[in-house]
Amino acid sequence: MRNYLLEFRKSIGLSQQAVADKIGTTNQNYSLFETGQRARSGLNTSMIGKFALVFGVTPEEILRLEAEYQAERASVLQAQGITTQRKGGIP
User: Fold this and answer.
1) Are residues 73 and 36 in contact, defined by beta-carbon separation less than 8 angstroms?
2) Number of domains comprising the chain
3) pTM attached to this predicted model
4) Distance (Å, rounded) from C-alpha 89 to C-alpha 91?
5) What is the pLDDT of residues 36-49, one digit of tens each?
6) What angle do CA 91, 59, 28 make, to 5 degrees?
7) Domain at 31, CATH number
8) How far is CA 68 from the centre of its chain?
C-alpha cells in the first residue's frame, strides 16, 4: 500500500520527530499514524490542516489520499479474509 505520509515526509527531508514537532504531537504518536498502527480515521480537521501545511499540499489532497489509502487497505484485508467492520456497522 502506498504510504503517502511517509512519502511526503521523505520528500521534504524531515525526520518523524521534526514532523511531530511541527504538528504539535509526540514522535511516537506521529509514528503510529505514519505506519498505520493508529487509525487514521481519527484524524481531525486540525490535524489534517497541520499535515497539509507541513507537507505543502492542500487539506483536500490529504483527504483524497487518505480515502485512497483506506480503500486499498480494506481491499487488502478483505482479500486476506479479515473484516474491517466495527461494532455498529462502521468500517
Assistant:
1) yes
2) 1
3) 0.76
4) 6
5) 777 666 678 888 99
6) 65
7) 1.10.260.40
8) 11
